[in-house]
Amino acid sequence: MSTYNLDVYMPIVILIILALAIGLGSLLIGKLLRPSNPNKLKESAYECGEEPVGTAWANFNVRFYVIALIFIIFDVESALMFPVAAVFKQFNQVGAGGTLLVSVLLFISILLAGLVYCWKKGDLDWVKSFNTSTKLKDK
Amino acid sequence: MISLGSYLAISFALFICGVAVMIARKNIIAILLGIELILNSAALNFVAYTKFVNNNIDGHIMSLFIIVIAACEAAVGLGIVIRFFQLRESVHVDDAAQLQN
Amino acid sequence: MNSTVASYFAQSKEFQAVVVFFTDLFGFDATSFVSFLLFGAVATIIVGAMATIGGLGTYAERKISADLQMRHGPNRVGPYGLLQFLADGVKMIMKEDITPKAADSFIFLIAPLLCLVGVFATLAVIPYSSGFILSDLNVGIFYLVGMASLVGVGIFLGGYASNSKWAMLGGMRGASQIISYEIPVTLSILAIVLLAGGMSMGTLISSQGGMPHEWNLFHNPFAFIGFFVYFIAALAETNRAPFDLPEAESELVSGYHTEYTGMRFAFFALAEYIEVFVVCAVAVALFLGGYKVPFELGSGQIFIDKIGMDAMIAKNIGNFLEIGSFMTKTLALYYVVIWVRWSLPRLRVDQLMTLCWKYLTPIALFNLVGIAVWMWLFDGASLFTLIFHSTGSAGGH
Amino acid sequence: MFANTLFLLSAALTVGGAFAVLWSKNLMHACIYLLASFFGVAGLYAVIGADFLAATQMVVYAGGVVILMLFSVMLTGGSSEKINRFGLEKIPAMGNKKTLFAAGFASFVAALIVLKILAQFIKHYDATPMTANLPTVERIGVVLATDHILAFEISSVLLLGALIGAAVISRPRREKND
Predict the structure, then answer these.
(1) Interface pTM (ipTM) of the complex?
(2) Is the Cβ of C358 closer than 8 Å to some Cβ of chain A?
């Protein structure tokens, strides 16, 4: 097997193994040293003292999902942009920077339009904006 | 050890798991998990072939776009699932039986 | 092209001697085995150093906040209270580790570990000096962004697993804050990658010079604004300073790690402090000239020409100077982070989100476009070279 | 030597994660095993030199898609198996013995079909020697900026469409219930 330069990934594997070792290791050491007398009161969720009511897993406002949605679209956009940005300098030195600049600006402006759309439709503001809808009704 | 055959075997196993998850689960989100697995196995195949057979980077470009499309598909699919949940109070596949609301 | 700490040490004679020793011990060529041992040693050194820096971060935080509020911080344990973080560590290990009955015990354990793995994996690409970087990946900064996003997943799972309303809210808010502030961070990193023309930490730093006017910060006005956008967004991404809403004591009873006690809580805190160091290190590497030392002292060439020192020793001295310059800049930024925490009030949730999506992201996109146009117009020349060359003055080499 | 161990480690992580997604009863656990499988696939990309793809896999999948999945599981009543509001006896959300058997049979049939197609490829491509891994970022960037510039621009339109479509669908309705 021709050994090719995979040594670059050795530290990553070692660091992840170290992180897990530190994590699980100190928990195991702790398990030996620590007092462990669980009782019902300690085990219940913290509700500022009162009895916890119902499960916490009630569903939430959709606003969290819209934020995650806009995040992943811009995440993918930046992932696509990274290789092009990395070679922009070489293109510029060769003289082909202009065309690449135009395509990069086109790419960004299309997605900027998406951000402006979400901004105008009120997806980005966290508090329900009542001013628009109530104003129409009062008149 | 590291050869085209082993990579094909791994992406084959991923594909089979994806198909099995899609069929075994009745929760729509779990089915979307299966779809992600299948997309991963396809992207892995592209990279394996471009490395062992024609040794250029066309496979990398293809699987880069597979990752882009998979992210968009997950975003829109989960949006539909959440809207479906608001209408039907459940994400069970059998509830998605009628076409109208 | 991927130089690592092993390839740097490989030039020294001792490394060859060890390799020869192991080859005749095992029979097959042991260079990769020796570099594995070297990586293991260097990784444990770095992890130990980072854990102490994380611990000292807690100590520095209490000391500086005390200083800002005209009182003495911890000064009982050890000289000037320096061993305070060791005492905290021992206390954390001895504390009882309670898993709430209604909690999901598997995820309850996985969440802090995910945070730790996410933060420790980013240590692989932190450039302490030209030779002493664990693995100068070709995709360095992009890999770092990927690993840092794991912490958001870890925090969400921590909030979800402890099945208490406070933790749930804190986890949800924490995760949405971290992922929404990742966009300005990624876009400003993208702008600097465009400026430097490469993704690996080596190229990002070698495109800057030692002297402040050669830093990326002063390269052009867009990079200048980009630094502050990056710094604010990075503050929010590590749940610090005015953006620590998810663990806001007053509202969410310390948010996602409400139910965590003992060592698991220590993992979250350790991961947060080390991530603050990593974020400051990336800010230094991208904007403030990284490990570059003024007057080209870093490469050690001067020692060889002037004093005729042996090349290897000169390179090591240059590297120590580079590590010194890198650490001073990063710890200065670390001080600013702690200083900001104790001087600014906390933001509300909607202010938090509005700041991110309606101010930081548009500005970051504007910076990206600005830097692209600047690179095209002036062929990547920095503001100072333009001024000096256009006025034709003798300076400005 | 290290290449083989890295390959085995990530292959085990991938396939183990994928099977765990199949077997786990709790939806949240399935998401975490999916995260582990994405980690493994990133490792597999790294072994054959696709370093930019490994980083993209980590950023987009492990950082984005998994968080989207977790959020949507939370927004749709968590992983608890709630009975349908009509109270009808229903197959539990994560599938019971019958569905697992159907899944096993269907995947067995799929396996046969795929093996038939792959059979002739595996035989004579097995012994290809591995070439050295070259850094791929510049090459992808150059090709993406020259040959595939059209795909690059169209993918931004695709992203725009996905953003606006998903935002319209999942936006909390204001006009109706106000």
Answers:
(1) 0.89
(2) yes
Rounded to the nearest 10 degrees, the angle between the axes of helix B58-88 and helix D149-170 is: 10
**What percentage of chain C carries pLDDT values higher than 90?**
23
| Alpha carbon distance C7, C233 (integer Å) | 35
pLDDT number for residue D177 = 46
Domain interval for residue D109: 2-79+97-121+131-170
Residue C123 near residue C135 (C-beta atoms within 8 A): no
Is residue C7 domain-resident? Answer: no
C250/A contact by beta carbon, under 8 A: no
Give me the residue from D2, D77, D141 closest to A84, CB to CB.
D141
Range of the domain at A18: 7-35+60-134
Check whether domain B4-95 has CATH 2.40.160.20, yes or no: no
Q: What confidence tens digit (pLDDT) does each residue in C80-112 have?
A: 777 777 777 777 777 777 777 777 788 888 888
> Does the beta-carbon distance from A1 to B67 stay under 8 Å?
no
Confidence of residue D129 (pLDDT cuts 50, 70, 90): low
Best mutation target among B29, B39, B68 (most A Cβ atoms within 10 Å) is: B68
Packing angle, helices A63-94 and C165-196, rounded to 10: 10
Number of domains in chain A: 1
Average pLDDT, chain A: 78
Domain of D140: which CATH number? 1.20.120.1200
